[in-house]
Amino acid sequence: MNPIIMLENIVDSKTDSAILSFLLAAPPRSFSVLEISKRLHMPHLTAAHALGKLVAAGPVSGFSKRGKKYFMLNQHYKLLPGIQDYWRKTGAKYQDELFSAIKRLGDIKAAFLSGIFSGRPELSVDLLLVGRVNLRKLDEFLKSAEHMMGQEINYSIMNPKEFVLRRDTFDRFIKDIFDYPHLVVMDTLVKKE
Q: What range defines the domain where residue 48 resides?
């Protein structure tokens, strides 16, 4: 089936289309209604209503944590691969401010998003930073990210030696990140096979 026809069957408004386009262009992480409404310059209620319709139609999934709702592309939606292939050829890419901000937190060797950012709010950590972190910049970053997400961001910081040791010995904390969906913001400590 033609991806354009698929999109027309899914979205019936400019708002729905803008949100789906944003989620296709952005990294495959979850977004709060507040973040989507701010990034797309639309009223909060308009974004919430459109997201509800997209969840009902199937291409978007949602979850809650402590009463706040989050949305991301539904990786189990049967038409998603065709839509994504089409989007890669014709759509714009979105530079995620979250990724950029994380890379500026100090001498970061690796950074991973998990937990609330990956649709797994039950996990104990949302952000793992490896390297030397500027604590003032981290505090500013956390305030901004927590405002956008409407939640406290659970994070952990490790030095590279500790991270490599824990990764290579299948430490439970590290396994909980890597065994579930997660996003690699950056990783200069990639395990050599």
A: 3-94
